[in-house]
Amino acid sequence: VQLQASGGGLVQAGGSLRLSCAASESTVSINGMGWYRQAPGKQRLLVAGISSGGSTNYADSVKGRFTISRDNAKNTVYLRMNSLKPEDTAVYYCNRYPLFFDNWGQGTLVTVSS
Protein backbone atom coordinates (compact mmCIF):
# COMPACT_ATOMS: atom_id res chain seq x y z
CA VAL A 1 0.00 0.00 0.00
CA GLN A 2 1.28 3.43 -0.96
CA LEU A 3 0.21 6.44 1.11
CA GLN A 4 1.17 9.95 0.01
CA ALA A 5 0.38 12.87 2.28
CA SER A 6 0.57 16.42 0.98
CA GLY A 7 -0.62 19.94 1.69
CA GLY A 8 1.61 20.89 4.59
CA GLY A 9 3.47 24.14 4.87
CA LEU A 10 4.22 27.17 7.00
CA VAL A 11 1.24 29.03 8.39
CA GLN A 12 0.69 31.63 11.07
CA ALA A 13 -1.20 30.82 14.22
CA GLY A 14 -4.91 31.07 13.58
CA GLY A 15 -4.52 30.05 9.96
CA SER A 16 -5.82 27.04 8.07
CA LEU A 17 -4.50 24.22 5.93
CA ARG A 18 -5.99 21.24 4.17
CA LEU A 19 -4.00 18.05 3.99
CA SER A 20 -4.63 15.36 1.42
CA CYS A 21 -3.67 11.71 1.41
CA ALA A 22 -3.72 9.75 -1.80
CA ALA A 23 -3.69 5.99 -1.39
CA SER A 24 -3.01 3.22 -3.81
CA GLU A 25 -5.48 0.52 -4.75
CA SER A 26 -8.81 0.85 -2.97
CA THR A 27 -7.33 1.44 0.45
CA VAL A 28 -9.55 4.38 1.39
CA SER A 29 -12.84 2.87 0.34
CA ILE A 30 -12.45 -0.37 2.26
CA ASN A 31 -10.62 0.75 5.40
CA GLY A 32 -10.96 3.15 8.23
CA MET A 33 -8.39 5.88 7.67
CA GLY A 34 -6.63 8.22 10.03
CA TRP A 35 -4.34 11.18 10.28
CA TYR A 36 -1.47 10.93 12.73
CA ARG A 37 1.20 13.41 13.66
CA GLN A 38 4.65 13.33 15.17
CA ALA A 39 6.19 16.40 16.73
CA PRO A 40 9.97 16.61 17.18
CA GLY A 41 11.10 14.33 19.99
CA LYS A 42 7.61 12.98 20.59
CA GLN A 43 5.61 9.88 19.76
CA ARG A 44 3.41 9.60 16.73
CA LEU A 45 -0.19 10.05 17.83
CA LEU A 46 -3.61 9.80 16.27
CA VAL A 47 -5.12 13.15 15.34
CA ALA A 48 -8.32 12.06 13.64
CA GLY A 49 -9.85 8.86 12.34
CA ILE A 50 -12.75 8.06 10.09
CA SER A 51 -14.28 4.61 9.88
CA SER A 52 -15.31 2.91 6.67
CA GLY A 53 -18.85 3.84 7.63
CA GLY A 54 -18.03 7.50 8.13
CA SER A 55 -17.87 7.75 11.91
CA THR A 56 -15.18 10.12 13.10
CA ASN A 57 -12.93 10.31 16.11
CA TYR A 58 -10.68 13.20 17.12
CA ALA A 59 -7.95 13.78 19.63
CA ASP A 60 -9.14 16.16 22.34
CA SER A 61 -6.50 18.70 21.34
CA VAL A 62 -8.00 19.17 17.86
CA LYS A 63 -11.74 18.76 18.47
CA GLY A 64 -13.69 21.60 16.97
CA ARG A 65 -10.73 22.74 14.86
CA PHE A 66 -9.90 19.79 12.58
CA THR A 67 -12.20 17.86 10.27
CA ILE A 68 -11.40 14.56 8.61
CA SER A 69 -13.21 13.50 5.46
CA ARG A 70 -12.87 10.98 2.69
CA ASP A 71 -13.58 10.68 -1.01
CA ASN A 72 -13.80 7.01 -1.85
CA ALA A 73 -14.06 7.65 -5.57
CA LYS A 74 -10.73 9.47 -5.49
CA ASN A 75 -9.23 7.11 -2.91
CA THR A 76 -8.25 10.18 -0.92
CA VAL A 77 -8.56 11.28 2.69
CA TYR A 78 -8.48 14.91 3.79
CA LEU A 79 -7.78 16.78 6.98
CA ARG A 80 -9.06 20.31 7.21
CA MET A 81 -7.22 22.18 9.94
CA ASN A 82 -8.53 25.51 11.21
CA SER A 83 -7.41 27.80 14.03
CA LEU A 84 -3.95 26.31 13.93
CA LYS A 85 -1.72 26.65 16.96
CA PRO A 86 2.06 26.43 17.31
CA GLU A 87 1.59 23.14 19.16
CA ASP A 88 0.09 21.67 16.00
CA THR A 89 3.54 21.81 14.43
CA ALA A 90 4.47 18.26 13.39
CA VAL A 91 4.89 15.88 10.51
CA TYR A 92 1.47 14.61 9.57
CA TYR A 93 0.93 11.13 8.21
CA CYS A 94 -2.07 9.23 6.96
CA ASN A 95 -2.57 5.54 7.52
CA ARG A 96 -5.21 2.96 8.13
CA TYR A 97 -7.26 3.43 11.29
CA PRO A 98 -7.35 2.08 13.89
CA LEU A 99 -4.82 -0.59 12.89
CA PHE A 100 -2.16 1.05 10.81
CA PHE A 101 -0.02 -0.38 8.02
CA ASP A 102 3.71 -0.72 8.59
CA ASN A 103 4.41 1.61 5.68
CA TRP A 104 3.85 5.19 6.82
CA GLY A 105 4.97 7.06 3.75
CA GLN A 106 6.84 10.36 3.90
CA GLY A 107 4.32 12.50 5.70
CA THR A 108 3.88 16.22 5.24
CA LEU A 109 5.34 18.89 7.51
CA VAL A 110 3.08 21.46 9.10
CA THR A 111 4.76 24.39 10.81
CA VAL A 112 2.68 26.92 12.72
CA SER A 113 4.41 30.13 13.67
CA SER A 114 3.33 32.23 16.63
Question: Please, could you describe this protein's structure?
Answer:
The chain is mostly beta strands. It has 1 helix and 10 strands. The strands form 2 sheets. Strands 2-10-9-4-5-6 form a 6-stranded mixed β-sheet, with no helix packed on it. Strands 1-3-8-7 form a 4-stranded antiparallel β-sheet. 4% of the residues lie in helices and 49% in strands. β4 (33-38) and β5 (44-50) form a beta hairpin. It is globular. The longest helix is centred in the first third of the chain and has 4 residues, at 27-30.
Structure in a nutshell:
With 114 residues, this protein is mainly β. The protein has one helix at 27-30; strands spanning 3-6, 9-12, 17-23, 33-38, 44-50, 56-58, 66-71, 76-81, 90-96, 108-113.
Number of helices: 1
Number of strands: 10
Q: Which structural category do the helix and sheet elements fall into?
A: mainly beta
Shape: globular
Q: What is the string of helix and strand elements?
A: EEEHEEEEEEE
Name the helicity range: under 10%
Distance between the termini: 36 Å
Low-pLDDT runs of 5+ residues are none
